[in-house]
Amino acid sequence: MTIADPVVDGVPNFRSLAGLTTPDGRRIREGVLYRTESLAGATPTGRRQLADLHIASMCDLRSAGEAARAPIDWGGPEPQAIRVETLPDARVAGENLIHSIMADPTGRTAYEVLLGNARSMPTSFGTSMAAVFDALLDEDRVPLAIGCVAGKDRTGFVTAVILSALGIEWSQIAADYLRSREYFTADRLYGSMVAWLDERPDPMITADDLHAASNDIAFLAASFEAIDTEFGGFDEYLRNRCGLDDQRRARLQQALLESAGT
């Protein structure tokens, strides 16, 4: 079964995780879990569409500086906020690092920065994941949306941890991770980086080359390799870092999954 993504005008990289399946034939229920780029771009029509989704909790992974530059106007009551401790993203490090990324036409700097961020995410986000799982286990705090600036790196990692905890097949997790490159296009990614520069370097990486260097499944693989090497495996990571023991994990699956025949 394929469930159409909800449309939020002005926010192309907003989508539902509904319909992703486990090996035993269960799937994520509709209307419980969404991932997104920054919702600051929502138009008045988009805000009405968001209101129709009745999002109860929002995990905004942007830094305080990013959120201040692009505040979200919900157009009504705001969902409960889930805060994270650390935000390992190039933009958080400031203009100097962004300048270095944009000044490398080969894209290697962008790739290495994002790879390093990916390796640090299990540690940076681990304890904060407990709050995310707490929300997902509380029926009054679902639906939940997860987002950052582009909705691909930080959002991609947090989403992948949730999907893995639910038992979703890796091939589907990887495919979902890479879908963001379709919606957060080269021009949009380029614009989001250039906006932080007071002066443009010369030479400067092209939009297409930056986009290619910034979208690679190797980043997500590096995050999960770090989980294995630093925490002794995914199950141990969930139990000891994310506060999700076997009993809570079973409850999570019961709450968010349904039979594919439903």
UniProtKB/TrEMBL annotation:
Name of the protein in its database record: Protein-tyrosine phosphatase
A Pfam family that the UniProt record links to this protein: Y_phosphatase3
EC number: 3.1.3.48
One MF annotation (Gene Ontology) recorded for this entry: protein tyrosine phosphatase activity
InterPro entries: Prot-tyrosine_phosphatase-like, Tyr/Ser_Pase_IphP-type
PANTHER family according to UniProt: TYROSINE SPECIFIC PROTEIN PHOSPHATASES DOMAIN-CONTAINING PROTEIN, TYROSINE-PROTEIN PHOSPHATASE
UniProt keyword annotations, A-Z: Hydrolase
Top-level taxon of the source organism: Bacteria
The family this protein is said to belong to: Belongs to the protein-tyrosine phosphatase family.
